[in-house]
Amino acid sequence: MLQHNNIVSLLGLCIESKLCIVLEYMKLGQLYEFLHDIENNVPPSMVLKIARDVAAGMAFMHSRSPPIIHRDLKSPNILVNSLSLSLSLSLSLSLSLSLSL
Predict the structure, then answer these.
(1) What is the mean pLDDT of residues 80-88?
(2) For 9-44, how does the pLDDT look when each residue is reduced to its tens digit (9 = 90+)?
(3) Catalytic residue among 24, 33, 37, 72, which?
């Protein structure tokens, strides 16, 4: 199980008919929407924190054995929880998730 401050928790998975993934709730939604909402007025210091958090999450995923490769890292695929814990990477599009069935 992957546990890291910058990785969203995978809560459930269904593979019977369609693939369904249940992720931890991220109250501020997608990073793309968060950054483009005029009301948020994101300061440069917050943008830098977000970049650091993305890098930390990616470094953690790449350090696993075997490495987990996201393959579609972009702002709509990054979820924002709060301003103190700015983001988590969605694993819904990751490669190399091994499922033991």
Answers:
(1) 64
(2) 888 888 888 888 888 888 888 899 999 998 888 889
(3) 72
Topology (CATH) of 10-93: Transferase(Phosphotransferase); domain 1 (1.10.510)
Cα 67-98-25 angle, rounded to 5 deg: 90
**Residue 53 falls in the annotated catalytic set:** no
Sequence spans of domains, the chain: 10-93
Asked whether the predicted pLDDT for residue 71 surpasses 90, the reply is no
In degrees and rounded to multiples of 5, residue 73 shows phi and psi of: -75, 110
